[in-house]
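Input:
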Amino acid sequence: MTAVSGLLGTPPPWPLGLVTAVLAGVLLWSVTARLRLRPESRAASTAVYACCALLVELTTADGVDGRAALLLAAGGMFAAAGRRRSLLAALACAAAVALAPVVAVGILVLLGMMALRKDLLTRFPVVIRRLIGVAAIAAAAGVAALLARPQAGPAVPVGVLVVLGSCALLIGGASWLRLPWLRPPVAAVGALVLCQFLPGPDLDAVLPAAAGLAVLAAVLTEEHHALFARPVLVGAVLVGVVVTALLVPAVPLPVTPSPVADVAPVPARLAESQVGAVAITIPRLDLSGPLDELGVADDGELLAPDDPARAGWYSGGVVPGDRGPAIVGGHVDSRSGPGVFFALRSLRPDDLVEITRSDGRVARFSVTRVRQVAKEQFPTAAVYGPTPRPELRLITCGGRFDRTARSYTDNVVVEAVAV
Amino acid sequence: MLALLLLAVGLALAPAPAAAAAATSMLRLAQLSPDQGDLELTVSSVANPDDTVLIAALGYGELSDYRTVEAGDYVIATRPAGSTEPPMVSKTISVQPGTTTTVATVGPRAEGAVTSFTDDLTAPDPTQARVRVINAAPPATQLDVRGPSGEQIAGALALGAAGPYTTLAPGETRLSVGPVGAPAAELPVTLNANEVSSIVLTSGDGGLKARVVVDAGGPSVVPPGPVHAGFGGAAIEAGPYRAVSSTVLVVLAAAAALMSARFARSR
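Output:
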């Protein structure tokens, strides 16, 4: 699946992402119409999808990554009936899971609930149907446990989750008996809320999750006879989703910084005052490259590296691994594409950062906090203030790009302590 | 039913953010006793006796690095290095969440005592040094400490005690230190900007000495303001597209919801 991630490449820059998401929604609507699904199922699934796309757009810094949504909407088109179309649907779901493994949790929960609610596998004996339902939910819990990083907190603000969850519960509770067709969308929203407590590598996981659940909710309620009459296919889809979720490591990595071989040979031993930082490695981002030295401008501001593909170390400050906060900066992008720290914001607490020093020592740091702050409110004290232990700060740009000022509005600051 | 549902949602969602990482507490040892240089210190959690940290023997006037500990009660015990005898001195201290504590051995070995004081590692103004003085210089039981321009840094500082924090200009400077009411000695110290330090006063053959121990260090030149590290090539553009697309999504969602409701009613 890494190949799939590679093929998909960099997320489309805004507004392409949101336009794609809107197109996906329209496509979803027309496709479900072509499938002759009941109008209410079509409407409900489109509403769920559109709300979630909006939610992602409003609550994430980078806006919408519409690729997974488009894939899933296309998947819905193929999912109507027939062996070949079902296979394509399964492939679309797998691709969405490859983009954001957290989607597997929602999909498995939904399938499990529908099996238990007798919306799926209706031709199977009750015992087997329930067993499969329980197994799917257990698998979802397993994937959730694998992905969960409790320290990171939910990807979307808690207030939004409370509202979303309350709506799902209210609608679901009120209509569970009288409006059976609403059950799958309600389960979809519930599963989505659940997904948010598994802080995945990227915030955009919400959208593919929403799209996947909405499409599946609509298609499966209508077409489960055609789709799930074949036990082999069901098994293959479930196994495929689980295996994909387990294999795919994280968010696709757009950055290919200069290889480590570019680093100048490390001198055997330097005087204490001449020790510097020469290379950085962040396993989570698959990032490994040399470090330049950063200075300050005439007005005292810290300068970013000249080369957007290389990070730099503030040599007027603390040497990484010595007591105090060492500062490493890097560009989020160049004029034409991603820079060395493009994926920095997707770091999460407990992720490892290694800095190789010119004396040959490797200073290892564990991420404690990742935050995006407005440049006007740059937390100078928290970034540069004295600390009792060796610490590290990684800094890049984030937020919206102001074309007139040719500058980003925010800074992304990663704080880490020595381990 | 509404209230119940909301309550259930609240209960389900509330604990997650609260479970965020608690503030870490830190502990270190100061060896402030001239003839206890071969003592090592064990710090054992009262709640979990297996959770024991050993801080190796330090020289007179030395401070160990900080160790991260969970908040709670700890038994501090000193022993000669490598010994398994019952502790010579044992004391229980309470570590509050998010605090930094220095545990110090003070006084002559015969009447060996353990004391502790809280360190305040608040950042100074980036152009200034923040210091305090620790009296570890027997036999003088009380010392007066004055800064380069005669300002009082600590008055009648008892043996084994830490004075209040004060802000001094960085660079090479001199402190006047002497027993209360007696002539003072001039002690040179070098301080760096943007650092929090403890100045440990020790006594020896050459009289009083001042030793600067950095509690918390930072870059001595702090660049003001943010970092401009992007050229916009992968940027999220601000413009009409966002509003337009968001509006389309809202309309789509609203229309779908309305139609859903209408179809549901007509069934």
